[in-house]
Model the fold of this input.
Amino acid sequence: MRRDPLTNLVRPREVLAGLLRALARRGVDYADVRYEHLTHEGLQAENGRVSSISLSETSGIGVRVLLDGSWGFASTPHVTPRHLREAVTRAISLAKASATVNRQARPLARVAPARARHHSRWDIDPFTVPLANKLDYLRWANQTLLGPDVIQRATTHMDFHKREKWFASTEGAWTEQTLMESGAGLEIVAARGNEVHVRSAPNSHHGALAQAGYEYVKRLDLVGAAQRAQSEVLQLLRAKPPKAGDTTIVLDPTQVVMQLHESCGHPMELDRALGHELSYAGGSFLTPDQVGRLRYGSPEVTIVADATIPGGVGSFGFDDEGVPAQRVELVRAGKFVAYLSSRETAAAVGLTASGGAMRAEDWSVPPLIRMTNVNLEPGEATLDELLHGIKHGYLLSTNKSWSIDDQRLNFQFTTELGWEITNGRLGALVKTPLYTGITPQFWGRCSGVGRREDWQLWGVPNCAKGEPMQTMHVGHGASYARFDGVQVAPAS
Done:
């Protein structure tokens, strides 16, 4: 691996060019090489004290080859010519071994070789903010959560990620990207007798994450969020459960995020639909014959996969096949019209181009089809207009738990809290409401979507897929959404 003599840093351009020359000499049908340098800082405070400080870096190269209709992949963190030659040999050997079993050609959808650079946007580099400043803010928010004896645990966290990536292919692609992410959040747990409740903010499951700098953390206002979270978790200890039965629900943007993720994003991954990805979390009910035919939801429902939107953690300049970022309509006015796809899966179903959804967790693993930013497009309704006419129902917020079958059809979600809706007005808070449904039936009962002014973009930093499992950062944007005739019950 060549290094700059002044900085002792790896010089990826020269290294990748050398690897491509070596692969061309070995006679592969196609190959791409990817060098990544990843930096992550994680900070956490618990019960008034700093409980964790971590800073990690990792870098390496992944080599992917297509030979005789079969893929081979190998990676190495080492920077010596010997290790790079060994990685090339391993990737080719795996492709040859697979070709003895695989008898099918694997054509790739065409893509114009890109030669470009891409940088995400940020104002304040979080890695330049003094550690003491970040910890002071984290403790301040954490201490705001504390107080009454019923509070059992209070945690606050911050996470920062920087990804530097170089990609090149034997087709002539050459891209360089730098992506910055920042996030923060909190969780409070309160207990009285057998009652235990959790309140997260601004979202659960570390979902307040954006492609941005430290300015995003400042906008989240963790101290103000801590005050509201403490008040709400104390109310949950006194709250009643919802009444069981079919009713109308309104999901706030934090819950629409998880509904989109589990019942829309995953089943629309084309490798699942083709049966290539089954062993981890199952396949998909969306078989290719349903494209352009299946009524996925009501006319209110338009869902897009948008890798171009600023701030989304599923945004980029180019995916890990060198395909440019795109905005792809998946559901148009309720009709299922497209998948999240790769070059190989696009060609398999007769598409002329990939949807640009191939991404790898890091340099050590091959790319998979992953969600980008799968968003529910906004409607025109205000929250008051969505509530209007509801004689009795619930507004539900902040995902707590979920379950969905291996075809992504039958699901149930529990939220941290909700509010009664009576005669079009919000009323008392209710604890841990559960709702359930069948995916196309549920989306078919969507009778209204909130306006652009209430639309929010959230990050999901822990989307798991593949074996060995890869954890990816994906995004979801949504406003409020109303659904009629939904079964609701108290969570047991």
Notes: The chain is about 20% helix and 40% strand. The first helix runs from residue 12 to 25. The chain has two domains: 12-236, 245-490.
